[in-house]
Design a protein that fits this description.
heterodimer; A: mainly beta; seven-stranded mixed sheet; B: seven-stranded mixed sheet
């Protein structure tokens, strides 16, 4: 069973800064099945990136995904106030434990 | 507009049963696999179960296998999760989530509901 490990657990940044979130798989995975989600309290999770690097419909271009094999990255180029949330990576039906992006 | 609305969550005693529902609209319900995903208090997302568009294929996480049953009524555009032998560790918000593609491939879940809270406690 593949395990996804996200780092850091918590990331404290200010609006306007760049955020880099990591997702590492315990074994090589297909990029086709790597997705990233944003989740805010009381809301439905929202898909941001699928296929490791393709933005979902309606997602701003400040969100980008990259990586292959075992190492994947979600980058938010310039943080907006609404971007502070918990982010999860997903491979097939396994989720990482999440990275909380909080305002510094 | 695609909508998924969960219902049926409540407080239940350990060993009890509960049935969750997920009402779908805005897409051809019978064409897509739908998942249940849960989030325990203070924890991350955990996949629970999936059912194919026709209902002919189902899969479960090991943590719920033999206790939970997923089903769907395509004539009512509704997904269900029958939960039996509930444990304290089943306490969570339960979300239904539509798969992006029509084949059971889990490339991503493109629409989610807001969830329904299940609390297992005496």
């Amino acid at each position: 069973e593949i395990v996804l490990t996200q780092s850091p657990g918590t990331l404290s940044l200010s609006p306007g800064e760049r955020a880099t979130l990591s997702c590492r798989a315990s074994q090589s995975v297909s990029s086709s099945y790597l997705a990233w989600y944003q989740h805010k309290p009381g809301q439905a999770p929202r898909v941001l990136i699928y296929g490791a690097s393709s933005r979902a419909a309606g997602i701003p271009d400040r969100f980008s995904g990259s990586g292959s094999g075992t190492d994947f990255t979600l980058t938010i180029s310039r943080l907006e106030p609404e971007d502070f949330a918990v982010y999860y990576c997903q491979q097939y039906r396994t989720f990482g434990q999440g990275t909380k992006l909080e305002i510094k | 507009e695609v909508q998924l609305v969960e219902s049926g969550g409540s407080l239940v005693q350990p060993g009890g049963s509960l049935r969750l529902s997920c009402a779908a609209s805005g897409f051809t319900f019978s064409s897509y696999p739908i998942n249940w995903v849960r989030q325990a208090p203070g924890k991350g997302l955990e996949w629970v179960s999936v059912i194919s568009g026709s209902g002919g294929s189902t899969y479960y996480a090991d943590s719920v296998k033999g206790r939970f049953t997923i089903s769907r009524d395509n004539s009512k555009n509704t997904l269900y999760l029958q939960m039996n032998s509930l444990r304290a560790e089943d306490t969570a918000v339960y979300y239904c989530a539509k798969e992006f593609g029509r084949v059971l491939a889990a490339t991503n879940f493109d629409y989610w509901g807001r969830g329904t809270l299940v609390t297992v406690s005496s």
